[in-house]
Amino acid sequence: MNSVNDLYRQVIMEHYRSPRNKGLVSDSGYICLRLKNPSCGDDITVQAKVENGRVAAIRHEGTGCSICCSSASVMSEVLKGKTIQEAKDIIADYYNLIKGEKVKDEEALDEAIAYQGVANFPARVKCATISWRAMGAILEGQTGEQDVEE
Ligand code: ZN
Questions:
Q1: Which residues hold their Cβ within 5 A of ligand 1, which is an ion?
Q2: How far is the CA of 72 from the centre of ligand 1 (A)?
Q3: Are the C-beta atoms of residues 146 and 34 closer than 8 Å to each other?
Q4: How far, in Å, from the CA of 51 to the mean position of ligand 1?
Q5: What's the rounded Cα separation, in Å, for the pair 137 and 127?
Q6: Domain of 132: which CATH number?
Q7: Rounded-to-integer distance, Cα 17 and Cα 148, Å
Q8: Total structural domains in the chain?
Q9: Which distant-in-sequence residues (6+ apart) come within 8 Å of 60 by Cβ?
Q10: How far away, in angstroms, is 17 Cα from ligand 1 center?
Q11: Beta strand pairing status for 31-37 and 144-147?
Q12: How many helices (H) and strands (E) does the chain have?
């Protein structure tokens, strides 16, 4: 295990133990979407508030494995404050990272870069992307409840 992998693992475990922006709020200004991953039992609800073309706030709640829960926390931190287009670009880049493909803007991914190792574990791809997919769907105007598609 080299030091970079250790650092990444620390980021993931730290967000798992102390998730940021966790807990849903009852505020009609938030768009809400629940995504479930039947193969792993991950069940995540993401709430986002968009104001003046920016992601003003993100909340998340749910149960799942450490990759799933920690990545929801990281996602909420990385995308908060971004414009809708910036957020969409970062989400697309995160999928590149998880697929082991070339990333366009490593800096914009910030702590999400810690999940690059997931590319070596195809079974965990859904876990690492479920909250990001939920956020992407919200930015496309979707709400409600969905299962993660294959
Ligand atoms: Zn999972």
A1: 40, 42, 64-65, 68, 127
A2: 11
A3: yes
A4: 31
A5: 16
A6: 3.90.1010.10
A7: 25
A8: 1
A9: 19, 21, 22, 24, 44, 45, 46, 47, 72, 73, 75, 76, 131
A10: 16
A11: parallel
A12: 5, 4
- Which structural domain, as residue segments, surrounds residue 49? 2-147
| Entry field: residues in the chain | 150
Q: Are 80 and 114 in contact (CB under 8 A)?
A: no
Q: Tens digit of pLDDT for each residue in 62-102?
A: 999 999 999 999 999 999 999 999 999 999 999 999 999 99
The pTM for the full model equals: 0.95
State the distance from the centre of ligand 1 to the C-alpha of 43, rounded, in angstroms.
9
Distance 25 CA to ligand 1 centre (A): 24
